[in-house]
Amino acid sequence: MTSNDNSGLYPHLSPADADTLRRATAYLDQITAARAALRQLNVIRNNGDLIGGFSEWLAAALLRIDLIPATNATGHDAKDDRGRLYQIKGRQIIAGKQLSWDGLRPHQWDFLIGVVYAPESFRVLLVCCIESDYAEKRLMAGGRFRWLPTDRHNPYVPIVWQADKALLDRWLPEAAVSASEPSVSDQGSMDTAAGVQPDSGD
Fold first, then answer.
1. What does the pLDDT look like over 132-169, one tens digit per residue?
2. Quick check: 163 and 9 in contact, CB under 8 A?
3. Segment 33-48, tens digit of pLDDT
4. Could you tell me which of 95, 86, 188 has the C-alpha nearest to residue 127?
5. CA angle at residue 73 from 72 to 78, to 5 degrees?
6. CATH architecture, domain 7-171
7. pTM above 0.90, yes or no
8. Adjacent-strand bridge partners of 66
9. 60 and 67 in contact (C-beta within 8 Å)?
């Protein structure tokens, strides 16, 4: 099981948010261990909605955007000071399964924020922020946006933060952009989300 060490994110957060993440990670360590034990006992089968809640908090802290109360949000989770809407999705990598973010509703958000975690942990591997025009072109049945091996180098999948290369290469292998991938010129202009600063890792 991968460690929940997210200390590489601290420099990208406000001091208060870094302290919150430090304290939250300690609790997540306990939860991760407890859930692993419960899975071995066949008491639980998955991680429920905890991934979603933590992903929303982390994305809001990184991009300096405001979460929308769940009772007021339909198809989006946050907005920035320009009124632009953000849909936030978190996923843990599962060996042998294609990484994707599901249940996306078209035309209800301006940016998709995707948070990727190492298997069976809350160790953040990557946070990306994708403009809706591009994301919606790639939506599949069920509102699924599937991560491609070329996306680590795709300018239309801006990386907000990523872990060190060794960890990424282990769990999220990259691939060179092929001739079959849509070119930048095919995709039109790309907007910039609030607070998005491409990051090279820890």
1. 999 999 999 989 999 999 999 999 999 999 999 999 99
2. no
3. 888 887 787 666 555 5
4. 86
5. 115
6. 3-Layer(aba) Sandwich (3.40)
7. no
8. 79
9. yes
